[in-house]
Amino acid sequence: MRTAASTLLCGTAAVARVEKRVPTEGEATDVDGTTIHYLLHVVGGKLKELEVYKDDSSRVLQHPDPDEVRVVVLG
Length: 75
Prior knowledge:
By secondary structure, the protein is an all-beta fold. The chain contains no helices and four strands. It has strands spanning about 25-30, 35-45, 45-55, 70.
């Protein structure tokens, strides 16, 4: 598996009141038809990590426009 790290910048100092580390998940379809998952990790109320993976563990070929990402609502 190949991983890459980048810095995430957030334009606010506000603290998110969340109960879980992954409060938001998004999905989109890559150009090969495989689902891409985006998990937003929040630790101590602050943005910590954006995890990106595909169902088949292959690399993302083309990230979608942000408007094409579907927010997943759990439970």
